[in-house]
Design a protein that fits this description.
Layout (H helix, E strand, L loop, with lengths): L1 E6 L6 E6 L2 E5 L5 H10 L9 E3 L5 H4 L2 H8 L2 E4 L1 H11 L4 E4 L6 E3 L2 E7 L8 E6 L4 E5 L7 H7 L4 E5 L4 H6 L4 H8 L7 H11 L6 E5 L8 H14 L9 E4 L9 E2 L4
Parallel strand pairs: 3-4, 4-5, 5-6, 10-11, 11-12, 12-13
Antiparallel strand pairs: 1-2, 1-14, 2-3, 7-8, 8-9, 9-10
Helix pairs in contact: 8-9
This protein binds zinc ion (2 copies).
One zinc ion (ZN) binds next to loops.
Length: 263
């Protein structure tokens, strides 16, 4: 199993995921050309993508979905509320495959479980993807961590987790009050401290890699997010037995192609 965050933040999100013969994208929130360019940097052609999974209808997650689907005959998987809310942006698709939030479905060798998150969209989801040996968890754009989210992300070997803002930077920043409130609300985005304490709950000896994602350019600093997560890791009583890498996704640069070893 391999994955790569192609870009993450409020200007566009997309993650490449591959296991065996199956290659998918989670979200496609950049232009088609830009996504094709970013895939090429990790040696992947658009024609190799089997499916796009959509988390929710916000433009930073769906901007390129329609064009990629039409250009390379890629099937798109989303729940009906997201599909309908995104229809003006994505327009015609090569093929639309409906899933129900909370109900697992299969794409070739992959079992995909979409679970509810808490965000100001119609039916936003995170994903847990398993290939029978390894599991991968994806959760950004949530204003709080529910028991359900905790449960779905437990025991994954790799995680992409939101670490959106630093509370102080947001409070003291230039955003208008209503926007600050929206970001901080239970349907907004996770701050670094909440994300770090969530990560602490998710630690286990088979967890290999965590990517902190959807960082705000205005209200966060990659160093601060990274240090909050590392501090949580170091506070764990089994810290010495853990061998976990943490990296921070970037809006403008393609992340590392991460291969899981299933140690
Ligand atoms: Zn977003
Ligand atoms: Zn969103």
């Amino acid at each position: 199993m391999k994955f790569c965050v192609l870009g993450s933040g409020s200007r566009g999100n997309a993650t490449y995921f591959e296991s065996g013969e199956t290659s998918i994208l989670i979200d496609a929130g950049m232009s088609g050309i830009e996504l094709q360019r970013r895939l090429a940097t990790i040696g992947v052609e658009l024609s190799e993508i089997d499916a796009i999974l959509v988390t929710h209808e916000h433009n930073d997650h769906v901007h390129g979905v329609g064009v990629l689907s039409r250009r390379a005959s890629i099937s798109v998987h989303a729940n009906p509320a997201t599909f309908s809310a995104a229809s003006k942006t994505v327009r015609k698709l090569f093929s639309y495959n409906e899933f129900e939030t909370g109900v697992s479905f299969q794409i070739r060798n992959l079992e995909i479980h979409p679970f509810a998150i808490s965000h100001d969209a119609h039916d936003p989801v995170g994903f847990r993807i398993s290939d029978g040996r390894v599991s991968f968890g994806y959760c950004t754009d949530t204003g709080k961590v529910s028991q359900l989210i905790r449960h779905r992300l437990a025991s994954c070997q790799a995680l992409v987790l939101e670490s959106n803002h630093d509370i102080e930077m947001l409070q003291n920043g230039a955003y208008p009050q209503y926007l600050k409130q929206r970001i901080r609300s239970s349907q907004g985005h996770l701050d670094n401290e909440v994300a770090a304490s969530f990560l602490k709950d998710l630690l286990h000896e088979k967890l290999e890699h965590v990517v902190l994602a959807h960082l705000s350019e205005e209200n966060n600093d990659p160093e601060i997010a990274y240090h909050a997560a590392m501090a949580a890791l170091e506070k764990s009583p089994d810290c010495k037995e853990l061998n976990i890498r943490i990296s921070v996704a970037n809006q403008y640069c393609v992340g590392e192609l991460i291969c899981l070893t299933n140690r």
